[in-house]
């Protein structure tokens, strides 16, 4: 049986995905736009075995119960391959645990690529994006390097990501690790609660879908102030829907707001820096290479040990294929 190892890099959404219109099919409420990052990735190795009773899964060398999302991707691969073999999945995260960055995007993109190849399938990037989406929505975008848009689409077959042309800008992201602790509530659960109970949610869906289209235009124009503004707005509006949910909740910690305040001070001083936060307290600052030093200097007195600077990363790729 073929054993395949694939690598996929994580991504950070500039225009967020927050909520599903169909949870069974993993269809998002809105389109989203992201940047795949150079420094954080997952390597996943898959072998399908004819004589193994059940799927097995190890993470960073430790055997684990097989997560339902892994089963979802493997089930879809078996359907496409037309066989019922069980899989051995070994995953290694190269997202430093201290970085506290979500790894499901890189994990399910790597699984989709390694698993489909191990099953003898040669899927197009779009078909891989669809497959990765069945594990975790944000993974649909990690099939691609640089910038990607995940289209809301009309259904299962066309709710996929595609790469966007890189603007003529040296984009950088500074990750500020406020806490490496596990999420207080998973993004899957939090977005479902928000969509079901937040009166702000319908407004967010309408605004964010328009913002995705505006972001495509801003990227095409290499208009960094506009790109940054749209990025910060989408994140803050997403977090606002959670404050209005029942029960109300937030991922923000005091230090999250402190970093955002420093970002606003930088901007007031003429430094282009824009904050974005996901389902956790850490802050990612979108900027341009020429301004990284000024931002690091501003943050170092309070967050010096917790900064990681990265830029756009590559598409998912096969590292090794062994018979
Ligand atoms: C805040 O992709 O982790 O990072 O589809 O339920 O697995 P599931 O959720 P997931 O959610 C990501 C949410 C986000 C925003 C984003 O990446 O677009």
TrEMBL record:
Q: What Enzyme Commission number(s) appear in the record?
A: 4.1.1.33
| Gene Ontology terms for molecular function | ATP binding; diphosphomevalonate decarboxylase activity
Q: Which GO terms describe its biological process?
A: isopentenyl diphosphate biosynthetic process, mevalonate pathway
Sequence ranges assigned to domain Diphosphomevalonate decarboxylase-like N-terminal in this UniProt record: 8-161
The UniProt keywords, alphabetically, are: ATP-binding, Lipid biosynthesis, Lipid metabolism, Lyase, Nucleotide-binding
Q: Looking at the record's lineage, which domain of life comes first?
A: Bacteria
InterPro entries in the record: GHMP_kinase_C_sf, Mev_decarb, Mev_diP_decarb, MVD-like_N, Mvd1_C, Ribosomal_Su5_D2-typ_SF, Ribsml_uS5_D2-typ_fold_subgr
Q: Which intervals hold domain Mvd1 C-terminal?
A: 173-305
Sequence similarity: Belongs to the diphosphomevalonate decarboxylase family.
Q: Give the protein name, as stated in the record.
A: diphosphomevalonate decarboxylase
Native species = Lacticaseibacillus nasuensis JCM 17158
């Amino acid at each position: 049986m073929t054993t395949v190892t694939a690598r996929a890099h994580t991504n950070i959404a500039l225009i967020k995905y927050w909520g599903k219109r169909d949870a069974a099919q993993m269809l998002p409420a809105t389109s989203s736009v992201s940047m795949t990052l150079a420094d954080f990735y997952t390597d996943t190795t898959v072998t399908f075995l004819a004589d193994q009773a059940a799927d097995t899964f190890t993470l960073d060398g430790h055997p684990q119960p097989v997560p339902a999302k892994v089963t979802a991707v493997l089930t879809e691969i078996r359907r496409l391959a037309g066989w019922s073999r069980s899989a051995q999945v070994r995953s290694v995260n190269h997202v430093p645990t201290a970085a506290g960055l979500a790894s499901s995007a890189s994990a399910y993109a790597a699984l989709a690529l390694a698993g489909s190849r191990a099953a003898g399938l040669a899927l197009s990037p779009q078909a891989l994006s669809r497959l990765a989406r069945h594990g975790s929505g944000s993974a649909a975008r990690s099939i691609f390097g640089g910038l990607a848009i995940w289209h809301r689409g009309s259904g299962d077959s066309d709710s996929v990501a595609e790469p966007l042309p890189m603007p003529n800008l040296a984009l950088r992201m500074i990750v500020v690790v406020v806490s490496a602790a596990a999420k207080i509530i998973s993004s899957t659960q939090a977005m479902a609660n928000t969509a079901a109970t937040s009166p702000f949610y319908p407004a967010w869906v309408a605004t964010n879908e328009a913002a995705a289209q505006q972001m495509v235009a801003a990227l095409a124009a290499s208009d960094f102030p506009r790109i940054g503004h749209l990025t910060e707005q989408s994140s803050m509006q997403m977090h606002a829907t959670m404050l209005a949910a029942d029960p109300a909740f937030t991922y923000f910690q005091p230090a999250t707001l402190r970093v955002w305040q420093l970002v606003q001070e930088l901007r007031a001083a003429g430094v282009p820096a824009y904050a974005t936060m996901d389902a956790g307290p850490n802050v990612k600052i979108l900027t341009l290479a020429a301004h990284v030093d000024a931002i690091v200097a501003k943050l170092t007195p309070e967050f010096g040990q917790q900064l990681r600077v990265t830029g756009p990363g590559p598409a998912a790729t096969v590292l090794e294929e062994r018979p």
